[in-house]
Structure formats: structure tokens, C-alpha cells
Amino acid sequence: MTWLIVGGAGYVGGHTVARLHAAGRPVVVLDDLSAGLAERVPDGVPLVRASMHDTAAVAQAMIEHGVTGVMQFAALKSVPESVSEPVRYYRENVGGLVSLLSAMTSVGVGRIVYSSSAAVYSSGPVAALPRWIARRSRYRSSTSASAMARWAARRSSAVAAW
Questions:
Q1: What is the number of other CB atoms lying within 10 angstroms of the CB of residue 84?
Q2: Distance CA 159, CA 128 (A)
């Protein structure tokens, strides 16, 4: 099984790539290097410099490298920025996942591991929080973006069994 690690030149993605590569698993990194570093990609691991928003480039990388599964680590992650620029965060994080799922669907890749640091803030219903916290939570836009991404992935025809 060959894994495409989206955001594989970032901190978490880079560690994942290193562990998979050390274990002898075939991996390919797709990263636009806007926040990642090419030096994090081990020797012998292909690096495709492209955005996950570029559906055609992602699909081409999957075909060229015989990808059978995707691990998605690419995302904007600053909580203060997500509060001041929520539309940018939805576009990058949710829109990027939708583009990635479209590429997966077009080439028949049906396995994805979706990673979101926003999940650490709460996966429970907002109703479980005191009303004043739910209305004022600075993490609300991050958690809603994560929820929207999970919803899109569950409904994608690319995902075999979520």
C-alpha cells in the first residue's frame, strides 16, 4: 500500500513520513511548502510540490506513484488567526479537503486518514457546554471547520468505509 502524505513536509506530517519510511512503507509527500520544509522529507521519498487545492496535480501524483491511501495533515492551524480570518480557514482547510476528496474519487483511491488538531478542543455537541462559553468560544470556528471536513469526507464516494 502506497500512502500519499498531504502536508508531509510539515511538523506532524514529517514525523509520520519518517516513521512510515523507516518501517519500509512506500510513501509519497504532497506539500506546497507554504509552511513545510523540504528538508523534513527523507532521502528516497518523492516530494510532489503542489497544493491540495490543485485537484489535477493531486490526481496525477496518485496515478504516477500508485497511491492507494491518503493521510491528510495539511491545514492552517493558528487559533487566533482562525478567529480573525474564518473564511480563509474554511477555504483552506475544508475546501482543501473537498479538493483532495475530488482527486481521490477521480482516480479511485478510497482510503483516507484525516488529521485535525482542531479536534482537541471539543468533539462534543455545543449544547454540552455552558451557554455563555458556547456563544463566546474562540475555538468555535476551528471546531466547526473540522466538523464540516468530517461531514464532507463521510459523504464522499472516495471513502470506502469511514
A1: 11
A2: 30
